[in-house]
Amino acid sequence: MKALLRQALFRLGIFWVSPLAIAFLLTSEKTIIIKDVERWQELLGWDKRNHLVQLLALLKEAKEFRNIYYFRLFKSNFLGQFSMYILKIIYRECPYLFLDNSCNIGAGLFIQHGFSTIIMADLGDNCWVNQQVTIGYKDKTGRPKIGNNVRITAGAKVLGNITIGDNVTVGANAVVIKDVPANCVVVGVPAYIIKRDGIKVKESL
């Protein structure tokens, strides 16, 4: 009985957000949105479904994903943008997560708990960002450039015209204001390297 009730509620929820699929059908950004959906489905451990159903499930359950979806639509063709502005009136995005529309963000961005998170940077593919993270300008010189497969954990700050290499993990509450080489783990204030290429070290940036 409980399983039937859960299934009925799921279908009702999908029906409620189904107008959001109109924008997907109109946008020129279908490929990258599908990659986002696949990444979230994998990390959340959800069963595989049809891409459109999975998209609607994410838009229903994860407001952070809704922000990413609207970001993709903003970057798309006129019809995608126009439908986004209409849909945002009814289907609100997460108000505590800010993605600057001037950013370039690769496929597969995963935001786990987007509370009080600000992203004003260019990100590569398959990045992971946690809550209370700030990525952006320190001054007028520029903003961060983040590589592929980078994980920035809770409370971290990545600031200024710096480059974060591929496969980097930024530890909780770290403050990064200098370039970070690829394949490193950094922690601390100011951040320093504690692991490089899988080997424990202690190196300043």
Please estimate the helix content: 25-40%
Low-confidence stretches: none
Molecular shape: globular
Tell me the major beta sheet. Answer: 7 strands, mixed
Note the gap between the termini. Answer: 58 Å
**Roughly how many Å is the radius of gyration?**
18 Å
Mean pLDDT score, rounded?
93
Beta strands, count: 15
Structural class: alpha/beta
Count of individual helical segments: 6
What percent strand? 15-25%
| Strand/helix succession | HHHHHHEEEEEEEEEEEEEEE
Summarize the structure.
With 205 residues, the protein is an alpha/beta fold. It has helices at 2-17, 20-26, 30-44, 51-61, 63-74, 78-90; strands at 97-99, 110-111, 117-119, 122-123, 128-129, 134-136, 145-146, 151-152, 157-159, 163-164, 169-170, 175-176, 184-187, 192-196, 199-204.
Account of the 3D structure:
The protein has 205 residues and is α/β, with parallel strands linked by helices. The chain contains six helices and 15 strands. The chain has helices at 2-17, 20-26, 30-44, 51-61, 63-74, 78-90; strands spanning 97-99, 110-111, 117-119, 122-123, 128-129, 134-136, 145-146, 151-152, 157-159, 163-164, 169-170, 175-176, 184-187, 192-196, 199-204. It has a seven-stranded mixed beta sheet with strand order 2-5-8-11-13-14-15. Helix 1 packs across helix 4 (51-61), helix 3 (30-44) packs across helix 4 and helix 4 packs across helix 5. The chain is globular and about 55 Å long.
Feature tags:
alpha/beta; five-stranded parallel β-sheet; 6 helices
